[in-house]
Amino acid sequence: MKARRPFVFTIAALALFAFNSGAWADPTKTVAVDCSAGETIAKALTLGDERRPLLIQISGTCSEHLLIDRNDVTLAAGIPSATVSGPDPAIDVIKVNASRVTIDGITVTGGRNGITGNSAPGLIVRNATVQGTGRNGITYAHGASGVVDGCTVVNNARDGVAVDSASATVINSEVSHSGRMGIGVFNGGSARIGIDNFNVGAGNVISANTVNGVHIVFGSTALIAMNQITGNGTGNPTGSGINLTSASADIVGGNMVSGNAGTGINLRSSSAVIGDQNFGLTTVNTVTGNGNPASQGGISGFLGSSMSIRDAVISGNAVAGLILTTRSSVQIASTTIQNNLATLPGNGDGIRIVLGSALFAQAPNGTVTGNAGFGLLCTDAESSVINIPLLGIGSNTAGPVSGCTGF
Q1: For the segment 225-272, what is each residue's pLDDT rounded down to a tens digit?
Q2: Shortest CA distance to 329 belongs to which of 265, 405, 383?
């Protein structure tokens, strides 16, 4: 009979594995920093074992610039007024180059960008105020990822939240009074705006930004749901509520896009689903009171754009409710287009189809009534519409339909 091997070596091996894997690691190290007493966050970032989590609780106003290049760091407010203020306008206030960093409950101001995640996975910014920076409030760049949740991002000189070749979720936040875009998604970036990572609605207020409220460009994508996107374009008459250029978006539902200086939802060489039944949220998007003669309509598709619109309410917009131009196309169902306004050079058409564009109506029927111009206007022989009866065209000031033929 073979003798049993002593198992003391097995126990020792398991103990060594547990130590190396962190299973028996010490708990998070907590450091309190009182900047009013001359202490600094930069010094606190050097303390403890860098292999283990670090929690820094801040009080007072800290006038410094921070580089966080160790993993599992949390900067949290020890008192509600805790602030990090960057004195040098050429340097980011907080730059994160590490993984799983959280900024929680503090105010960040000054500097160049407020908070920048640079190739930083898992950067969470929550319950924070980021204001008065020299460029962007919060930036995710170069493959960074994370969540902005419950934040106030206001009065930043360029963009409120910028997602550049990165991915981010922006929920439960106010993004307003930016010098350019409220939320910008650039260069192949991806974003969830008002919908969390579990597809639960968690809308934002995106308002009073100088150009566009939401700006998605250059191969980027976004999911957009449950937001109030209002009053953008304060310094630019073409400033839209949602703008897409060479990009795509799923505008799921629950969005109120209203009172923007330019077009409510504007597409240039882009694609969008407006009203998506696959998320378990409302599919109704309301697009109202947008536009001016220089930037027309509630929803506009330009230069080969394509859209699917379902359950939208498009009302009270300048020049036209829905405009398709330059070989753009739309598939539309169950949509209300009403009371759009005559504003030169347009006459308030419900739907206007221009320069070889196309519309395909589907059931359930929609409603096109009360518009200052035609219910449906096609301006050229190359523009076509199919299933006109399904649009539900009723009484409109200039008449029901003008110039439209089938395919």
Answers
A1: 999 999 999 999 999 999 999 999 999 999 999 999 999 999 999 999
A2: 383
Which alpha helices (H) appear in 128-207, and where do they start and end? none
Q: How far apart are CA 264 and CA 269, in angstroms?
A: 16
* 157-194 pLDDT per residue, tens: 999 999 999 999 999 999 999 999 999 999 999 999 99
Sign of CA dihedral 125, 128, 129, 132: negative
Q: Are 360 and 354 in contact (CB under 8 A)?
A: no
Complete domains list, the chain, with CATH: 101-402 (2.160.20.10)
**Best CA proximity match to 137, nearest among 100, 165, 176:** 176
- Name the helix (H) or strand (E) containing 333: strand 329-333
Question: Is-contact 382 352, C-beta < 8 A?
Answer: no
- Which has the closest alpha carbon to 232: 249, 265, 209? 209
Which residue shows structure tokens 């999911």?
A: 223
Report d(CA 13, CA 19) in Å as an integer: 10
The sign of the CA dihedral 315, 318, 319, 324 is negative
Beta-bridge mates of residue 145: 167
User: Helix (H, G, I), strand (E, B), or coil: what is residue 231?
Assistant: coil
Secondary structure class of 264 (helix, strand, coil): coil
Gap between the Cα atoms of 386 and 364, Å rounded: 14
Residue 18 CB contacts under 8 Å (≥ 6 apart), including other chains: 24
Residues 50 and 100: their CA atoms lie apart, in Å, by: 13
Burial label for 124, CB within 10 Å (0-12, 13-18, 19+), is middle
